[in-house]
Design goal:
4 strands, four-stranded parallel beta sheet, 9 helices, Rossmann fold, alpha/beta
């Protein structure tokens, strides 16, 4: 559930000691309502980042996110390197081959059907056991904030491709910090491979996703690496 509460306010408050931090809801999540499946594409999500920057009068900014939010940050950096100073990706999403992508699309279609028939809580109950404890707890907290029709529409992203292969990351020329994930959807080995391909990629220490169970704990664990990275590129 990529809304603004995902690792906040704990992580945001730690970073806000030095930086202006803006916490958007991704289109269709949190308080954002977008029930049109055609409006849930990677290009649209990346354009939303730039539209928000324009609205706030920000010519350049560092962008980042967890899972889907991290992929959006990468797409924004690829499309608009003149506007993105740096990218931070927590739990890099898997970049699937055609077979795995088809399986993901079908899984999301089943999830959407379950939401329509039984509601969000029931739909997530099938998936929560596969998530790390801390991530699962954050999803549980996010369910009441979500608009079910928007979540159903957002499942259309399963039919769009953010990147066709890890080699596509070579086009991202801004400094990029990658925090390894800890499950099949966010494989740690992909993070290691990605930083070898990203022209200015850096691998952060692994976060304790499998042991820390609260947003506060995750924020405290993630903040040092993120702050050090930002200090290198935003204060220079």
């Amino acid at each position: 559930m990529p809304d603004r509460h995902r690792h906040t306010p704990e992580l945001a408050s730690l970073l806000a000691e030095r930086y202006r931090v803006v916490l958007p809801d991704v289109r269709g999540y949190g308080r954002s309502v977008c029930a049109d499946p055609a409006l849930h594409t990677w290009s649209r999500y990346a354009d939303d980042v730039l539209a928000l920057m324009d609205h706030l009068g920000l010519q350049r900014a560092a962008v980042g996110g967890t899972g889907l939010g991290g992929t959006i940050a990468l797409r924004a950096a690829a499309a608009h390197p003149e506007r993105i100073r740096a990218a931070l990706v927590i739990s890099l999403e898997d970049i699937e081959d055609d077979e795995a992508k088809q399986a993901e699309a079908e899984m999301l279609e089943r999830f959407a059907a379950r939401v329509r028939s039984s509601g969000l809580s029931a739909a997530w109950s099938d998936l929560l056991p596969s998530l790390a404890p801390g991530i699962g707890n954050l999803v549980r907290e996010a369910i009441p904030r979500a608009d079910p029709a928007s979540i159903v529409a957002a499942c259309a992203i399963g039919r769009d491709r953010a990147f066709r292969s890890v080699d596509d990351l070579r086009a991202i020329t801004v400094p990029t910090l990658v925090v390894p994930g800890a499950d099949a959807r966010h494989p740690g080995e992909l993070a290691a491979a990605a930083v070898q391909i990203l022209p200015h990629g850096e691998l952060a220490p692994a976060a304790p996703f499998d042991t820390v169970e609260t947003a506060e704990g995750l924020g405290l664990a993630l903040a040092p690496a993120l702050r050090a990275f930002l200090d290198s590129y935003m204060l220079a």
